[in-house]
Design brief:
The structure is a single chain. The protein is an alpha+beta fold. The chain has helices at 35-45, 50-69, 113-121, and strands at 3-10, 22-27, 74-75, 80-88, 102-111, 124-126. The chain is 28% helix and 27% strand. It has 3 helices and 6 strands.
């Protein structure tokens, strides 16, 4: 398997007017993998039935939610780790840091070594199946 990419032109961050533009590789995603597809693939590797697999995945999702909400790191060995994260506004004194300071919550994921290795070893292929950016665009017709 290979990871597809396309060229994309980007300006230098923080430079007025964009500075010198350069070309970078950007991943071209194929369609998403659905729960149905995952279940069918997992069924090939174990003796569980489709409803059993769906039940385990749903239960895992529920348990992960509960553990993350309890400020726990969820480590799924080779799959990787999920952990809660927050960002907050800065205040002048330690005593001023309160729950109201929290601006955003998120969940971080750190992949396991096997997943990292699989991505690193996948190889890369330049894709030509993406819409090219045109320099002149035709304006939409007046309604």
């Amino acid at each position: 398997m290979t990871i597809k990419f396309k060229p994309i032109e980007k300006a230098q961050p923080g430079v007025t007017g964009g500075g010198q533009k350069k070309w970078y590789a950007q991943i071209v995603f194929d369609e998403e993998v659905t729960m149905d597809e995952l279940v069918k693939e997992i069924e090939k590797f174990c003796s569980l039935t489709e409803p059993d697999i769906r039940g385990v995945i749903t239960a895992l999702e529920n348990v992960i939610q509960d553990k993350l909400a309890a400020s726990r790191i969820v480590r799924l060995e080779r799959l990787g780790s999920f952990y809660p994260a927050i960002s907050s506004k800065g205040v002048d004194a330690e005593e001023e840091v309160e729950a109201i300071c929290v601006r955003r919550t998120s969940v971080n994921y750190r992949p396991g070594n096997r997943i990292v290795k699989a991505i690193r070893d996948a190889g890369f292929k330049k894709s030509h199946d993406f819409p090219k950016k045109t320099t002149t665009e035709t304006p939409p017709p007046n309604s």
